[in-house]
# Entry
Amino acid sequence: MAFRKLDLTPALRPLLLPNETLLFVQDAVGLYEGRYKVPNYQNGSAYLTTHRICFINNDEPRRYSAALELKDVKKFELYNGFLKSSPKITLYLRPSDPSLLNLGGRSASRSPTYTPVQTPPRSSTPSQSIGINRQWICPICTFPNPFPSNFGPASPIPPCLTCGVKPNRSVLDAVMNASGPTPKPTSQPSSDSALLQAGIDRSKNACPRCTFINDHALRNCEICGEVLSSDDIDESLSTGGARSRNESPGPAYLGSIPPSEQIDSVKLSFRGGGERSYMEKLKGAMTQRKWLLEQAPVVPTITSGAANLTLDSRDNDPTLLNSTPEVTERIIGVRGLERQSRNLRMNNERTIAGAFEDLEALMSRAKEIIALAESFATQLSDNPSLANSDATEALNNSANLLALRPTDFTVTKDQISSSSSTSTSLYHAELARSIADFLADDRRSILKKEGGAITLVDLWAIYNRARGIELISPSDLENAAKLFDKLQLPVRLRQFKSGLLVIQERNRTDEKVAKSVLAWLDTLADVNTWDLKTDRRWGKSILARDAAEKFGWSIAVATEELEMVEERGALCREVGIEGVRWWKNPWMPDQ
Amino acid sequence: MTDSALPSYYPEFYSFPPFFTRQPNAASWSSQLSQWRAFILAYCRAHKIWRLNLLDALDSPLFHNKAINRKLPLPVIREIITDLTASSNAEWTSPDKSAAYIFWRTPDDFATLLYTYLDDTGQKGTVLTLHELTDGDNTTSQEWYGMEQAMLVRCLNVLVKRGVAQVFSVGEDKGVKVW
# Structure
């Protein structure tokens, strides 16, 4: 099967493999297998990554999504579209994958939903349904012409495509009267082609056109490419229409293809345009072949460079004279440990020096540097003398930021085609998805740290910082955030009374917030009251900053949340010199 | 400080700091407002305050709880008094809203009280000066004792409207005759 299962992120984007990068996204794309539309895969987004083409259905992304590995693609071509036919990119699949062309497994499956692109009109001719794959051979030039799909006794005789001479009607009749896509010995042995076929020993899988005896497993003639057939296929063809499958179990059986059809290609139909940019990016990805990198030998690392250094310095440093070759052999005692750590330090130095030499190197060494930064960070936090210093925090932060793979969250405008009119909204939709992924990322747990809600301004700062390059504008962020609801993402945009915009988890409701605030107030009431003059029976009061501290909100969010709780009647306020104090509301009858 | 130290007409919310802040929540505010209304009327009645000068009252115990150091701001007081005027429990003395007559009973109730008193004491048909009614030796125990003349006229006008009294001027003073 050409399509593989595709894992999705919470924000319904394809889950990228390690080292995989997103290149391009185009919406309003439909999927074809061979010439047939695949049901349920007709309106979705096609993601192009360095490794795959991922299709995600717009309406039911979890059920209908699939990925096609670029390494399975032999070649691809662009079809520009004609009249109502949308532009398409055809991907020809590598037949080396044995499962790709194994039609036997699904030869019998023919669901009622299948719709051939060029369904022949149902006319009175009973034999026309089998005319799809047939050819008639021009008696003049022997060119195999396609058999006209709606050919009947009254229709005009088409000329040969090559020599332009109209054949004798009997030639076409002979083909039409044959009982299958591949003519068998017929009742009209008088015609030339029927006579020809009658002499072929069919048990040896001989080609009906050129008579070459092919291997049993082959579906096409090795010499002339004619479709071969065998009896079991014919049988399945004749009964296939009556059988049906209840439902596609999943991407493993994407569509139901008539058994006579050989699926060696997949088409992406660009109903909303954008095929050219997609094609270009696809070309780039196919040329780069990033997927090969996984198997490729590891790029020579810095360690080897460090080894050179130690070799050089060995002459000068007597302690290193005999150490280098034995580092791996034995390390004994304190001296051995010292030596080991010195070597390590030296390696690190080399790594850092090498990586920062130029930007190119930095990019390729990014992983090592991140690992280094992380190890430094842990070393620092382990070191008690530095434990509380600001430096630790700063370093931790920078390590955190570096540890983030920026590519995961980066959607840029040039990944979105500019040709389609909906490109800006598509860009925002993709941006919204990437932001949702960013927020949902476990390693950072931004929302958790922020108490479940983050203001748009803070998010903008954090998100742009994580991107590092290709920063987004505040208005783009706002527009993207407005799409959260429409895209059914796990976060949502919420506007407080004052107009403050925050992004919070979808499942976080006002009710829950109010409840937790009240519960917290109740526990506080047990503690000594802050103001001894105040009567104890009123409970304890809080400032917005107390709530911010307790729940991890920013002050702005805390104020808004408390006002929201006040709006619900659970809290009441007291405006004093130190700002607004919040109390449990005794006026509400239900409290 | 506990409530037991305060006279009974002080509401229990007097010690609740948010009581001195106007609540933005409509439901809370309506409860708060009714408590303030009741408190102002009870306070004025206890202290025999007929005319409430807002600026003077700001620092009085009515609007200033010294124990918890909370004050009701002037705009909120205005809002509450305005609400009182809507139910005839108060009346601005001047358009600048710096002072108000406080009717802890509505003029209608006072009029009924006056009529009952005059009826009980057999003074129907007699001409009485307003001064006699508000500051006379016979009325010291009556609720309207010490009432400002302007307020009394307001109450007597209710009787006039009912058709049982007549107000007329006797020299500089005003007189009333009830029948």
